[in-house]
Amino acid sequence: xxxxxxxxxxxxxxxxxxxxxxxxxxxxxxxxxxxxxxxxxxxxxxxxxxxxxxxxxxxxxxxxxxxxxxxxxxxxxxxxxxxxxxxxxxxxxxxxxxxxxxxxxxxxxxxxxxxxxxxxxxxxxxxxxxxxxxxxxxxxxxxxxxxx
Amino acid sequence: xxxxxxxxxxxxxxxxxxxxxxxxxxxxxxxxxxxxxxxxxxxxxxxxxxxxxxxxxxxxxxxxxxxxxxxxxxxxxxxxxxxxxxxxxxxxxxxxxxxxxxxxxxxxxxxxxxxxxxxxxxxxxxxxxxxxxxxxxxxxxxxxxxxxxxxxxxxxxxxxxxxxxxxxxxxxxxxxxxxxxxxxxxxxxxxxxxxxxxxxxxxxxxxxxxxxxxxxxxxxxxxxxxxxxxxxxxxxxxxxxxxxxxxxxxxxxxxxxxxxxxxxxxxxxxxxxxxxxxxxxxxxxxxxxxxxxxxxxxxxxxxxxxxxxxxxxxxxxxxxxxxxxx
Amino acid sequence: xxxxxxxxxxxxxxxxxxxxxxxxxxxxxxxxxxxxxxxxxxxxxxxxxxxxxxxxxxxxxxxxxxxxxxxxxxxxxxxxxxxxxxxxxxxxxxxxxxxxxxxxxxxxxxxxxxxxxxxxxxxxxxxxxxxxxxxxxxxxxxxxxxxxxxxxxxxxxxxxxxxxxxxxxxxxxxxxxxxxxxxxxxxxxxxxxxxxxxxxxxxxxxxxxxxxxxxxxxxxxxxxxxxxxxxxxxxxxxxxxxxxxxxxxxxxxxxxxxxxxxxxxxxxxxxxxxxxxxxxxxxxxxxxxxxxxxxxxxxxxxxxxxxxxxxxxxxxxxxxxxxxxxxxxxxxxxxxxxxxxxxxxxxxxxxxxxxxxxxxxxxxxxxxxxxxxxxxxxxxxxxxxxxxxxxxxxxxxxxxxxxxxxxxxxxxxxxxxxxxxxxxxxxxxxxxxxxxxxxxxxxxxxxxxxxxxxxxxxxxxxxxxxxxxxxxxxxxxxxxxxxxxxxxxxxxxxxxxxxxxxxxx
Lengths: 148, 326, 505
Hints:
heterotrimer; A: 148 residues; flat; B: 326 residues; alpha/beta; D-Maltodextrin-Binding Protein, domain 2; 2 domains; six-stranded mixed sheet; 37% helix; globular
């Protein structure tokens, strides 16, 4: 049932997006003598098309039986992956320290996917994280001269 | 050495305290030791373009003129017609280890036409480096022998003459608009995505003119009608606008900026290095192969040029309705 | 002629030149294979080396890098389902599907053979038919560009028949995403939310990294057996193809090579659209279009031949007219200019040995690409035998770093992550990701060329009917639309018949 709700909500979001897009497009100025379509002409057509299609899609969603569930299984891993990745990029952006951030990310991900916290798993994680950071350093900073 | 520190920090995993990635360290350092590490040069355009090409030549040439072993690493920070790169430069650490090139577009045009997150006059100007020609190119078999005949034709056919330029607000577009205003011409500028596309449009007969440099001219395809700026080596055979009594004229240039509040001794050291590189005959030869001429002006003169162009372009963009509320 | 060739051959077959070609192929392939890093970045890295080399070796180094990167992009498309370059986008459909079935080696084999042939064919066209092709290219203008892009967009609808309404929503959303940024015609900022990062539009690299890369990893994580590896049997790694297998995709390779070479000539199109056109054409003429997207070898061969053929095609306007049609070709043009040479007809007269050397050398780069590819691909296929617990974080790091390195913008990383999460959800709800991204690529070409056509024609639409090539394209579009209408009617009258509206396109 959740999937059907999300599907329907998605259509509503698209209708809202279309409305916003249309109203933004009406604010573009007309440049030139008006003999050719202005900057907002084509976006307005797109907005109308999107809203119409989304309404049809919404009707079909409500009519049809519920689609298969959104997440097969592994909800913890899925959520964990998103959270870890967001934290990784946020930490990097906030501190400017790429290597500690990437090592923490790789370490955390490995623990998450292996779902084991034994001393051996922790050690593997540390080694793997360090090796990943080191290879990124060699490939990007040394060979490709890209500063991270 | 710094990079290795960073690597060790990464490998040791939790020792975040001893990070020290790029760009730190110079603040407490004596300016006399400048530069003690590699300098990053932001190029606010995509790789492959003329500005990128020029910057790479200059970066390579200047290395021999910098004290110590430091080199200059080019980083492309493209986007928004150089606004993205200049914003990054504006926010960079003002220690002289991050500097950037700019053309007129970023410091004199964009601040007129868009809300930008930097102040056009707020950077530390290091030096003006080179100039390039800006030429109105027409088909090889175009009926106009010279600029005067062209003006005659355009006057007789108002609204009919169409030329391609590399985008609304590009230097070529603004100059042609200024020219039209001065001579009271009615011509149509057609925006294209880049030099290649507008050149193709001229060759295929879609347009009757193109704005480009000497590198875009090949005698069997097209010819330069008039140079919209000044004569530089390699363009002597193309007349300039001033030859026809026109006062409009623009010299596209590339200049060097540092973030605001970069210490003066550091700026001076950079200025000296680039100045002597531009005086090096080997560099000049390479630049001339790219149809560029050294156009050295010191930081103060550069600042004055930016200010003057900002005002001039503001007048044109106001006229065209392109200006943003400031 | 033979004398000239012998002369060129002695210039070409020197240690320096051969070394440059193999080095370029190798580095290009490795960089192209990393998601986010494409041909442009690889060539920029090589550029400083060319300053000190002699022009022929330097330019061939760049060409070999370009070819290698275009092929390398397909490696990650096949192996990971993440296109390494925009040109490899279409290869994901069938390449990744074949790899998932346990045959990553075969899929890479098809793509390598097709890429090599595509490169060779375009090189031969460059050598023999430059003049007529250029004359043809000069007949094309904005009206034709618009119609070509429109045909591409019509074909996008054929991608998904699962849920036609949602496919069209994806197309419209892709077109909308393509309007973000400065409007070329009026110079106005559209839908940028005041951000300078969006002035040149949403980054294609960031969107692809998110929609294919991040989303793919998220779906992998949510599968039950996410701890295991994709491929557990060694047998699937072998890249060798039998002669019969190669012959079976011969027609698609020919089609792809031809389409790729021609589209390469058009400025601003590039390898992304060209591989898409080749794929659509191969599907249209296939006996079993329903297997496209499920690991059909033709679905790998056609776009792969096309994206490498685009490289040779793009060299034609560069060498004949001095027009760089894409950022990668602009870098090659830069290398000419740095050596004081100006590409164009004048160069053929002034430096015939150099120009013909480059053209013959281009053929050689295709051969080098095959040899290097043969040596490397098995190693790449082996990536899939790595356990997913290790593979997922490694690939995620490579996507993130690659996306960052293309523009140094954290903004792009957030775009990629957001696009990834939204896509993972949208795929479950049966929206078509490929339709979105292709519309995103083709939409701006269509809009800008339509509006520029109208500026050039003073607002008159009759220009589409008065230009001969344009008229031919208009008729072609009318036929396509008629076919669609016919099949819609047939389906309406025979509701149970398995007629798919869009496969007729």
